[in-house]
Amino acid sequence: MKILALETSTEFCSVALYLDDKIFNKEILAERRHSEILLPMVHELLEESALALQQLDGIAFGAGPGSFTGLRIACGVAQGLAYATNLPVIGISTLEAVAQQIEEQKIIVALDARMGEIYHAAYQRLTNYDWQVISPPTLCLPQHAPSVAGNGWIGCGSGFDVYRKELSALYGENIHQVHFKLHPQAGEIAQLALPKFTNGSNTDPANVTPVYIRNKVALKENER
After folding, report:
1. Which residues pair with 126 in a beta bridge?
2. Closest to 183 measured CA to CA, from 80, 92, 112
3. Whether this model's pTM surpasses 0.90
4. pLDDT truncated to tens, each residue of the chain (224 aa)?
């Protein structure tokens, strides 16, 4: 299975290639240059791997939640490449991609959503590349994050970096450990896409869309 993965939901821009059970990836702190550097990074990675787009089995991208502009860039590029090569496309949750970075069983992910809020989800590992959703992705204030049952949970994501005090007070003994400074990366997007492509969960490029969760990008003056 050969899978190309794209991730541009944060200030980082990353691409990865799942090839023969190995992950090859590139990542750049892009700030707001994602649209300029994403395709060159893809072409560079494919050249280094001696692969053409037509040799891939599918394309995966970080579908969100995250930066509205970043999500649209990854989705649009994935669709464009897929249309050009008649390949299937799958969108992968950015929250699940952060959980995939932790080799534990029960993960709470919180990503900084700006405006005093977080994107939140909780997962329990089923297999190496598959998770059960315990608490579905949602947008909330950190102090109002959904509860979880039991202890032994691992916290991770930029939401814990920014709102460590609030989330620590909320979860107390539920959380055993927190991993800081984690963000979605294309390598985990590729891993999570593997069982979906293998099981035939192929998606027509025309049907994939970003997962925004938030419907507003800015507060009005009287809402601040």
Report:
1. none
2. 112
3. yes
4. 999 999 999 999 999 999 988 999 999 999 899 999 999 999 999 999 999 999 999 999 999 999 999 999 999 999 999 999 999 999 999 999 999 999 999 999 999 999 999 999 999 999 999 999 999 999 999 999 999 999 999 999 999 999 999 999 999 999 999 999 999 999 999 999 999 999 887 688 988 999 999 875 443 334 33
- Give the whole-angstrom CA distance, residue 135 versus residue 120: 8
Which amino acid type is present at position 178?
V
Question: What DSSP line would sit under 80-132, residue for residue?
Answer: HHHHHHT--EEEEEHHHHHHTTS-SSEEEEEEE-STT-EEEEEEEEEETTEEE
Q: Tell me which H or E stretch contains 189.
A: helix 186-198
Distance of alpha carbon 219 from alpha carbon 144, whole angstroms:
20
Sequence-ordered list of residues with C-beta below 8 angstroms from that of 26, at least 6 positions apart, any chain: 14, 15, 16, 41, 44, 45
d(CA 157, CA 168): 13
Q: Are strands 89-93 and 58-64 parallel, antiparallel or unpaired?
A: parallel
Q: Which helix (H) or strand (E) holds 192?
A: helix 186-198
